[in-house]
Amino acid sequence: MRNRWWNRLVDQVADRGLGLSRPNQNPDVMKRLEENCRALLTSRGEASGVALAREVVRAVDGLDEAGKTRFLQLLAERFGPDRDTVLAAAERFRESDETADLQELLRVVEPPRQEVFRRLNGAPDGTRVLVRLRETLLRQLKAHPELKPVNSDLQHLLKSWFNPGFLQLQRISWDRSPARLMEKLIQYESVHAIQSWDDLRRRLASDRRCFGFFHPALPDEPLIFVEVALVQGLATHTAPLLDPESPVGNNDEADTAIFFSISNCQVGLRGVSFGNFLLKQVMGELISEFPHVERYATLSPVPGFSRALRMEGDYADGFTRDRIAALIQDDAEALTVAAGVSDPVDALHQLLEAPLSHQEVLAEPMSRLLLAYLTRVRRHDTVADAVARFHLSNGARLEQIDPFADHSQTRMDASYGMMVNYRYIAEAVEENHERFVKTGEVVLSRNLQKQQKRINAAWDGNATKTGASRSRTTG
Prior knowledge:
By secondary structure, the protein is of the alpha+beta class. Helix content is 53%, strand content 10%.
């Protein structure tokens, strides 16, 4: 409500400034945008500046994908720092070592397009248009690497504008939240698709909680939201959590809160982190409302496991055929008998063509392989799995492996249906976070620590193709 009132007020200011600013009306859209952006940089009047910014925002919002790409190229080519000016300022500071010269150097190093973005952000609907513009930018980066500096500038500003201190945590409920927000949940849910309104209603029932982060400039747009189920014991399968016909539980009997879906909603805010702050605030809300709940954990996907096990992709330290053979050695006979082939690794991959038909024989070796993936497979000097990085860097510990916990096609393709629980223990979160970010250590539950010793022995004894091992025994 406040944002709509503010936009109307700014629109009134812009209307008064329109006659003062005289925005360029060149029929060539790109020339008009360039001239208006340059006028923005020199504008001193508040009303005229807002009017110019509004004109640019409206023009950019009306562009198609190709037009927005041309506008981004314009910003890259015409609104970067002037090389000669930067070199001259650097030389002056080198000779003088004066604070004033350092400040001047910092001023001229900053690309003018950053100030253009700041001015546009102050226009009515400017924040939304800039977030959408970055969606185009991210889609075009591969084809247009010259846009990387523009992306760096815009991401830098978005991180500041969407600082967690500006975000508002809201509970989303069936009875109190507006219908348009419900539609957004259906649209943005990215972990477990919401199949119907009945499905959504069950996910917002009394034994569930849903929280989202919102920004004052985008009041109707969730930035990220988390779905929580209040249950008894650690959840090990998604089906009971996602069944719209499941009975509503008694919250007084629940001892565990399961975070089963975390969805980022705004593609244009990729690289701007919200999830760690969201989970900690939600835990605080749940602890206050349900002080008897003992455990806070996730039921999480493992999106990169199947590709890693097939030895696809670029890993600093990954699976090899010898490592897989060593890790499944205890189950080799059962695998070869079930598959009808003599080689255990070939037998494993053959059975994985229809894993749900062979759950009993696959559960143990696949759990061992998944634990190895989460603790030993490396990319860019850290764990390879993106979901694991998220939770481990937030201070969770890897609690349990859940074989064939999700039978959806998405999860079968990504991880053969395997999932895991990460557990958040309030008094250990900060220590676990420090251990992971400083040393890369994956903190494990006591049960997984025992299994990890065998995995390390198998992994290190067969590290013949991907270089020296980097991980360590944890816990």
